[in-house]
Design a protein that fits this description.
Blueprint: E1 12-13, E2 22-25, E3 31-35, H1 44-59, H2 62-81, H3 92-117, H4 125-144, H5 146-167, H6 177-180, H7 198-205, H8 208-220, H9 226-230, H10 252-271, H11 280-290, H12 311-319
Antiparallel strand pairs: 1-2, 2-3
């Protein structure tokens, strides 16, 4: 489990007066077992922190994860505090749809951070899928324009009618069928149909072997499956199966990274619809630090995911205001 918080070596008192035991600790909440001695060189407590906590954190992708976590926080906070948006009057319908989807993307990303903070990133997987789906739909809408809105309306009416028809005669059916029968369904727009399916969007953008693959992985960890059940089985050969209450799940950094990337793509897509772009600084920093490339280049651009973060920025993110990890030694 990767803790996405600043990490600084901090000896703490673990005993009782008058002779408390000083053990190794970390600002993220981790506690070691060695006795700390800041006057020793080397301090055995610092060596314990370094070997048994900080290095494993880095090996588990902690650097990428914590940088993604920091940028997600900046972006969702920027979204929450953003002022009015401005757009051309002839794309009013497109703005209505894209604003709703962008709001869902940002609010869902914030929920992912909340789950990450209480060590339940496994339970955030369906939310990561939601962010991916809405980001792809927003990209398609921005690229295709107004006819994509008609395709969305048609899909909405089709889904509503299916729901009403399915519920007829059941315990939750109502007279709502009559409310939807008179609705006029927009004429089919073959060239816009691709904007309403994840697989079609990925195919059109040339990212089937990357983003559609990611989508399938997320689906596999969202729906009931052998994959989801197996995460709670420690040893299937044991009589008790080695059942566990905490999942065998080590993809925290990966899914935080993808969430950050999708926030950048969604924000950039939204800005291309506005006359006055917003969150430009926040989006630019996240794009640079996470190595984000245009969505259609994600399968081919070797620079995708190549983080570009200064040493000072890494120390700020990783260790907070206290500086380098050795500051407490």
């Amino acid at each position: 489990m990767v803790v996405m918080r600043p990490h600084t070596y901090t000896p703490v008192s673990a005993g009782t007066p008058p002779e408390p035991t000083i053990v190794v600790g970390c600002t993220c909440g981790w506690r070691g077992t060695a006795t700390a001695d800041t006057n020793a060189n080397p301090d055995p407590g610092f060596q314990d922190w370094l070997s048994n906590h900080f290095k494993p954190f880095l090996e588990a992708g902690g650097l990428r994860g914590i940088i993604a976590h920091n940028n997600i926080s900046r972006l969702v906070e920027g979204f929450a505090n953003a002022g009015h948006i401005h757009w051309m009057s002839n794309i009013r319908r497109t703005i209505a749809l894209s604003w709703g989807w962008w709001s869902i993307i940002n609010r869902t990303a914030r929920a992912i951070l909340v789950l990450s903070s209480v060590y339940q990133m496994r339970e955030a997987v369906p939310l990561v899928r939601t962010v991916l789906e809405h980001t792809l739909y927003l990209e398609a809408l921005q690229r295709h324009g107004e006819t994509a809105v008609d395709a969305a309306v048609r899909e909405h009416i089709r889904n509503v009618r299916n729901i009403v028809n399915t519920g007829q005669g059941g315990p939750v059916s109502s007279g709502s069928r009559a409310d939807f029968e008179p609705l006029e369904v927009p004429d089919p727009i073959p060239d816009a149909a691709w904007t309403q399916q994840v697989s079609a969007i990925c195919d059109r953008l040339g990212v089937t072997n990357s983003l559609y693959l990611l989508y399938r992985v997320l689906c596999g960890q969202t729906h009931p499956s052998l994959t989801t059940a197996d995460q709670f089985i420690g040893d299937p050969d044991r009589e008790d199966l080695g059942i566990r209450r905490e999942p065998n799940f080590d993809q925290d950094s990966d899914f935080l990274f993808w969430t950050g990337v999708m926030l950048v793509w969604a924000g950039q897509a939204m800005n291309r619809l506005l006359t006055q772009p917003i969150l430009v600084e926040e989006l630019g920093l996240a794009e640079q630090e996470l190595g984000v490339v245009p969505v259609e280049e994600v399968s081919t651009n070797a620079n995708f995911g190549a983080m570009n973060v200064s040493k000072e920025r890494i120390e700020q993110i990783m260790f907070g205001e206290s500086g380098s990890p050795a500051a407490g030694s």
